[in-house]
Each structure stands twice: as structure tokens, then as C-alpha cells.
């Protein structure tokens, strides 16, 4: 039976905040990003705790979604309407043979990276073009989100243990 690992989702949801502190630090890309976004240090000083709390909530939503991008077993479950209790024999046989197949950090990271390139980049680029932002702005934000969701997807797909904080490797 597919269970949602809420601990993995929450841990993965911390990644955007941690990556943001690093990526948008003035010594990394922060200064360039502020210039390209038309922001000043004075305007950025107004950021409060509420922004970080709401960012964490939104990051939980991203993490929750990424499990469906990275864990193929959810697709098999979807093909039977999500009803494990009334699953047919072919589903049971599939899960017996492939139940934990492709459940690794690397596999989740790969699928999330592909989502970054094929989904995140177009979203950010379209908005940036209409906002008249530069390609530098587009690439700073796209790279941040692509790297961030790559790590998040790896955590979510690879950490399938429901019995605590330790990482369980693929059998």
C-alpha cells in the first residue's frame, strides 16, 4: 500500500528556505538578482517572519506535488482509481514485483531536474518576458528552483521509510 511520507515531505519543504539563504545571499547571486529584479536593500529589509512561514507552507505544497512526479508507484495506484483495498490481481502482482523499484535519491532527483527544465524554466521565462525582466534574472531564478526541486525530489523519492528519521536504502 502506498503511504505518504509526511516527514520526508516536511524535510524536503525546508530545502527552498535553506537554498534561498545560500543562493540569494549577496555574496552568491543576491546582489545581481536584486539589481535584475529592481529591488534595493532597503526594500528587502521589510521581509518579516510571515513571509518565511507562508513560504514554508507553499514549499510543503511543492513537496507534496513532487511525490507524484518522482514516485512511479503513485501512477500504478492511480490506474486502479486509488483504491488499494479493491485492487485486482494484476496490480497486486505489479506491486509485488516493482513495489520499491526506482525509489532512490538519484531517481527522484533526475525526474525533478527534468521538471525544472521542462516546467519551471518555461513558467519563469514566460513571466519574466512579460515583466520585461532580463535573461539573467530568468536564469538566476530558474537555476535556483531547478536545483532546489532536484534536491527535494531526491529526498522525497529516496526516503521511503515510514519508521523514523533514518534513510532506508533500496532493496
UniProtKB/TrEMBL annotation:
Q: What is this protein called?
A: DUF1761 domain-containing protein
What does the record list as coiled-coil region(s)? none
Which species is listed as the source?
Chryseobacterium potabilaquae
Q: What stretches pass through the bilayer?
A: 6-25, 46-66, 109-130, 142-162
Q: Which domain of life is it from?
A: Bacteria
* Keyword line: Membrane, Transmembrane, Transmembrane helix
Amino acid at each position: 500500500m502506498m503511504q505518504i511520507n509526511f516527514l520526508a515531505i516536511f524535510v524536503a519543504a525546508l530545502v527552498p528556505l535553506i537554498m534561498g539563504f545560500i543562493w540569494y545571499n549577496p555574496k552568491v547571486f543576491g546582489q545581481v538578482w536584486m539589481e535584475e529584479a529592481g529591488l534595493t536593500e532597503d526594500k528587502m529589509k521589510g521581509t518579516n517572519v510571515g513571509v518565511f512561514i507562508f513560504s514554508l507552507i507553499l514549499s510543503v505544497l511543492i513537496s507534496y506535488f513532487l511525490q507524484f512526479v518522482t514516485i512511479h508507484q503513485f501512477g500504478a495506484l492511480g490506474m486502479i482509481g486509488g483504491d488499494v483495498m479493491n485492487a485486482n490481481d494484476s496490480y497486486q502482482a505489479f506491486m509485488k514485483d516493482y513495489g520499491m523499484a526506482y525509489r532512490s535519491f538519484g531517481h527522484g532527483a533526475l525526474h525533478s531536474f527534468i521538471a525544472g527544465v521542462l516546467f519551471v524554466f518555461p513558467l519563469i521565462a514566460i513571466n519574466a518576458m512579460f515583466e520585461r525582466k532580463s535573461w539573467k534574472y530568468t536564469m538566476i531564478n530558474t537555476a535556483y528552483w531547478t536545483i532546489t526541486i532536484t534536491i527535494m525530489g531526491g529526498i522525497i523519492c529516496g526516503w521511503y521509510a515510514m519508521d523514523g528519521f533514518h534513510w532506508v536504502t533500496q532493496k
